[in-house]
Amino acid sequence: MSAEATNPEARPEARPELRRRGRTRIDLRRLGRAALLGPTPRDRLPDAIGHVAEAHRAHHPTADLSVLRRAYVLAESSHRGQMRKSGEPYITHPLAVTLILAELGAETTTLTASLLHDTVEDTDVTLDQVRAEFGDEVCFIVDGVTKVEKIDYGAAAEPETFRKMLVATGNDVRVMSIKLADRLHNMRTLGVMRPEKQARIAKVTRDVLIPLAERLGVQALKTELEDLVFAILHPEEYERTRALIAAHAGEADPLPGIAESVRAVLRDAGIAAEVQVRPRHFVSVHRVALKRGELRGSDFGRILVLVGENADCYGVLGELHTCFTPVISEFKDFIAAPKFNLYQSLHTAVATPDGYVAEVIVRTRQMHRVAEAGVIALGNPYATATATTAAAVDGGDGDEERVDPTRPGWLARLLDWQRSAPDPDAFWSGLRAELAQDREITVFRADGGTLGLPAGATCIDAAYAQHGETAHGCIGARVNGRLASLGTRLSDGDTVQLLLAQDASSGPAAEWLGHAKTQAARIAIGSWLRDHPDGDTPAPTPARAPLSVVGVRGGGGNAVADLPDAPVRLAGCCTPVPPDEIAGFVVRGGAVTVHRVECASVAQMRSLGRTSVAVHWRATADCRVTLTAESFGRPHLLADLTEAIARQGVEVVSATVEPPVEQRVRHTYTLQLPDACVLPALMRAMRDVPGVYDVARA
Hints:
single chain, five-stranded mixed β-sheet, six-stranded mixed β-sheet
């Protein structure tokens, strides 16, 4: 950009890994001279973008290059006379950015917008001119990049800075693709800047742009940005790592020999595969050195195996684990469970007979393209969309939502909660926390849908992700069919059924904030609590004695003992009702207590040698029973349960409510039934009360 100068000779030693990869590099001075040679005949491309066209055709053989020629002519003529701080013509910057994207496989629209990405900001070219010449898509992207570039990167402006950047990214991921390539070229050419400005730009790159590159899956940009930031912010560690790599370059490298052994194994197995040795970049070597201490020759790179089909990946894995000694702890399957940024591969490690351990990555060629270029490799995500975007590119706020079938789940979440973030500081802290998440899980909803959540998310996060503000009334959840508290952490593949109260006045408790991990949930809960400072929901209460509502206690109901004049009573431990099989025992005072025969008390009395008394049921239909209702705590639950019981024509003899534990409450009712046959219907009616998840005989 105009604020950042180039120095094509700056820090060449910082990028030896790029030479090992064979990446095409631009001779900026030659291109600068070519840019000043004047107009080019219309029947051929300008020499200055010949290498861009070549890289583009390698990925898109049938691409129409005429639009690139027109974009270059407009960019070169509008930037003519502008120079970067290092002395090169300014056109070399958009050319370099476009080449980076072309090498990653960006489609023609992205490359066209990349060539023009500074014209509206730094020249007299207007958005209307861009739209008239290149269409709405190019105009939309150029406008998005222009808005991002106008952002002030000062420390005080950071929160609002990245809110705007996030909106631009969400509306079209190609905006951020161009921004990342732009930042990479500026980082490559940062040598002429003052050290303090280099450090400031590197910190912004480290804190936000590198995590965004990771989440967009653009590993090729992310790894080089990491190395450049590493060299600026940690020069001593960088020099030590560079010395390690330089020392290794003079030693025998075991990886080529291991790669040849892998080729032979796969050739004998009849699996067509391409086997490469991939050197680690500087930051990766530094991390491995911190993890393992002294490095061996096989630690400076990894073996990459490329195959044609998904099934071949597992065939390769089987051969590797059969013919070599696998290091089981290093195995990861990102094909069956892709990462949040679309990344798919099999990761494993094998030990060789001479004691080396080599890490191996297995993927298809399509997976490799996506692993290197992320969303850039997916082409135009809006090619089939019919959304109109004219208003967004015609001086609007850029808030229109575009249909993006490739938008990662984490980005959709960020876009959702950034709109409701109460203030820039809350947004900034939330953004940093979200970007710090390095893994995403997928959970299944009860209706068969799925939810993408960050690792460590709880049932509360799932509730707000699925129901939005309706989740204020969430009273519990079932995870994999079992009752779980709202603070339960979810794992990849869990099935979650969320239970909501029907009472519209229900609201979250303050302790929910301690369980919520996603910013969407935290912001929604915090907003509700601020709007209800007096607490419209019951506050947590200390443990207390059970609340009992006692009615008239009866005797033995319709049970009769074969002892004349002996009082009979039904046992409270099992509350038998007709037609239960029953047994009676004489207790202190001469009374006969009646139990169900399967009651534990019956077995205990018989083990003590107590003799049972014959008992039977009278012909009358009324009876007494004790039921236990397990439920989630909520306002008016006791009243709703009592009403449901009364509607069945049942009398409440007594009711006990235990103190809530983790929002769960147990209600115990002793009931006088007019007829034993109403018991099944009564239990169903109690289960239908919102918040009740189980009703059983005591």
